[in-house]
Amino acid sequence: MSDVLVLSALEKRYNRGKPNEIVVLQNLSLRIPKGQVTALVAPSGAGKSTLLHIAGLLDTPDSGTVELEGTDLSGARDGVRTAARREKLGFVYQFHHLLPEFSATENIVLPQLANGVARKAAEARAADLLGRVGLTSRAAHRPSALSGGEQQRVAFCRALANGPSLLLADEPTGNLDPTTSDTVFDVLMELVRETGLSALIATHNLALAAKMDRVLRLDAGGLTEE
Ligand SMILES: Nc1ncnc2c1ncn2[C@@H]1O[C@H](COP(=O)(O)OP(=O)(O)OP(=O)(O)O)[C@@H](O)[C@H]1O
Q1: DSSP string computed for the chain
Q2: For position 52, which CATH number holds?
Q3: How many independent structural domains does the chain possess?
Q4: Which of 10, 132, 139, 196 has its CA 20 to 30 A from that of 222?
Q5: What residues does the ABC transporter domain cover (predicted)?
């Protein structure tokens, strides 16, 4: 099976049946093959977050299917969706959302412990990931002692901690100044490439989008390839 994520004929409306009903996604389909990094660009309000939430099993479509590694999870029970989210998906947001009272290492170890990994193995993986993003010397620091770019690099490591099949990212460097954003984005791309990860990365930055394998534009409820 070569597709990691297959979204088919998704439809999503808000305020269904009311005068202020909005159709956000309409007959939207998307395939992400294994190892492919896809950029998602969209004007503000076009439904980018809605699409990422549905792909990330945080929200459900009104109709259509969400297949992750060949299994349709659109109508699955909450427990099944939560387990799939923990085991198969990695998330990065515009803000790092690291736990402030824990070190960089612990922020990467904790999701692994929650997934049943032994502490020693989890610490070894955290050390490996921090090394890949150039943060070995910052491993014991809490988020407040790290720069914005460093915090975001730790967040990338945390997203990859459990070896996901798919990375979903929403403006992963959107909170950084333009120069830092470029550097940190390159770190993310290298990490994704080295691990052979598939990814769907939303960005407003067309120069960053151009570094990915494919650019899709979300507009008027559907996707078009650039
Ligand atoms: N819970 C909700 N109830 C009603 N309308 C909503 C809800 N969530 C989002 N919307 C509307 O749906 C549309 C798409 O929202 P969404 O957050 O997906 O956009 P977006 O493309 O991520 O925007 P941005 O780039 O500005 O964050 C917007 O018009 C928004 O106002």
Answers
A1: --EEEEEEEEEEEESTTSTT-EEEEEEEEEEEETT-EEEEE--TTSSHHHHHHHHTTSS--SEEEEEETTEE-TT--HHHHHHHHHHHEEEE-SS----TTS-HHHHHHHHHHHTT--HHHHHHHHHHHHHHTT-GGGTT--GGGS-HHHHHHHHHHHHHTT--SEEEEESTTTTS-HHHHHHHHHHHHHHHHHHT-EEEEE-S-HHHHTTSSEEEEEETTEEEE-
A2: 3.40.50.300
A3: 1
A4: 196
A5: 5-226
Cβ(12) – ligand 1 distance below 6 Å:
no
ipTM over 0.85: yes
pTM (predicted TM-score): 0.94
> Is there a domain that residue 12 lies in?
no
| pLDDT single digits (tens) 137-187 | 999 999 999 999 999 999 999 999 999 999 999 999 998 999 999 999 999
59-101: pLDDT as tens digits: 999 999 999 999 999 889 999 999 999 999 999 999 999 999 9
